[in-house]
Design brief:
This protein is mostly beta strands. 7% of the residues lie in helices and 42% in strands. It has a 5-stranded mixed sheet, with no helix packed on it. A 3-stranded antiparallel sheet has the order 1-3-6, with no helix packed on it. The longest helix has 11 residues. The protein is elongated, with a radius of gyration of 19 Å. The termini are far apart.
Length: 149
């Protein structure tokens, strides 16, 4: 009887929901089709939520010179012509979220150095909660030199 009661209690506490990535609020950046600039820093901003506790997130920025897509892209952006990568920008980092947090606002400074290829890129976000459930979001961006006026 005791084993049955303990196993019943544990089932009530099972987390079976994926965390969520919110890029729709005013401070979220970048949004689909935004432009980032070579030689400048931008602030990545997103809100992450989970029903029990968040775990970690990662940001992956990689070139899209071959026009591949991610299933999370909801809006098609105008793409530049297909080209070969010579010195593409690549950024891959993972960040821990403090234990016990259900809502977290990510704010990460990312610098794009001189000398990287201009063009179409993807910013891919992966969010994992403490139980291992995962959410992903792909954002299409351009990385260009800022035009002087």
């Amino acid at each position: 009887m005791l084993i049955f009661l303990l196993s019943t209690c544990n089932r009530d506490e099972v987390d079976n929901q994926r965390p969520e990535i919110d890029m729709s609020w005013d401070g979220a950046f970048p949004k689909n089709c935004d432009t980032l600039y070579i030689g400048e820093t931008f602030n990545f901003g997103a809100v992450f939520t989970d029903n029990t506790a968040l775990g970690s997130y990662s940001i992956d920025i990689h070139h899209n010179f071959d026009h591949h897509s991610h299933s999370t892209d909801v809006e098609d952006c105008r793409l530049l012509p297909v080209k070969e990568a010579v010195n593409p920008f690549l950024f891959i980092r993972e960040y821990e979220i403090p234990v016990g947090i259900k809502v977290y606002r990510a704010d990460v400074e990312i610098f794009i150095p001189e000398g990287v290829d201009e063009g179409d890129y993807h910013l891919f976000i992966s969010l994992t909660d403490r139980e291992g459930w995962r959410a992903e979001k792909g954002v299409s961006v351009k990385i260009l030199h800022r035009k002087s006026s």
